[in-house]
Design a protein that fits this description.
3 strands; minor pseudopilin epsh fold; Helix Hairpins; 2 domains; single chain; 11% strand
């Protein structure tokens, strides 16, 4: 199942310090992310036809997949955990690579980059329990900010992810303990596209 292998981080574990520490990156990628991947692949053993699809296709088509209802939930949780983390690593980096077109679109939709960051931060801080804060392009092509619980993915809603923040405690507890707001504030320093 090489199309479902866990990719290495696109930068060194310590590359996001001091904002996100190397110990957290090791545990987050090598333990949590690996477990989601392994559990997802295990579910697919019962559905070999699904291995012909991409992970993104599986989640986009989740509601119509020819699987049992309990396995549909497992695919949502484990596949979502796998794809959400893949995307999470990609929006961060030690060097900025600003997407100027996206920045202009953000200014048009949210008044300013600062206002966007404020709204996104409020969404992330205000999310109850485990989950993710998202900037997506919805089915109408408009930018939208929202949070989703657990490992739910915007792909299942027909939305295209643009930016994501993991607000599960495993993303920050080693360095920030229960201080989610402090973690979020630090995270903006390693977002590479804005």
């Amino acid at each position: 199942m090489t199309n479902f292998d866990l990719a290495p981080l696109p930068y060194a574990y310590e590359a996001l310090e001091p904002y996100i520490d190397a110990a957290t990156m090791h545990v987050h990628h090598d333990k949590h992310h690996q477990t989601y991947r392994d559990n997802f692949v295990k579910i697919l053993e019962s559905y070999p036809d699904l291995t012909q699809k991409t992970l993104e296709q599986i989640l986009t088509e989740l509601n119509t997949l020819p699987v049992s209802e309990p396995d549909r939930i497992k695919i949502k949780n484990q596949g979502g955990g796998f794809v959400n983390h893949n995307f999470f690593w990609s929006v961060m980096g030690p060097e900025k690579k600003i997407d100027e077109k996206l920045v202009e679109e953000i200014k048009t939709n949210f008044e300013s980059v600062e206002k966007f960051k404020e709204l996104f931060t409020q969404t992330a801080v205000g999310h109850f329990g485990a989950g993710w804060a998202w900037l997506v392009r919805n089915q109408e092509g408009k930018l939208q900010i929202y949070s989703l619980p657990n490992q739910d993915s915007p792909l299942t809603l027909g939305h295209t992810p643009i930016l994501v923040l993991d607000v599960w405690e495993h993303a920050y507890y080693l360095k920030y303990q229960n201080r989610r707001a402090e973690y979020i504030s630090a995270w903006w320093n390693v977002v590479k596209i804005i």
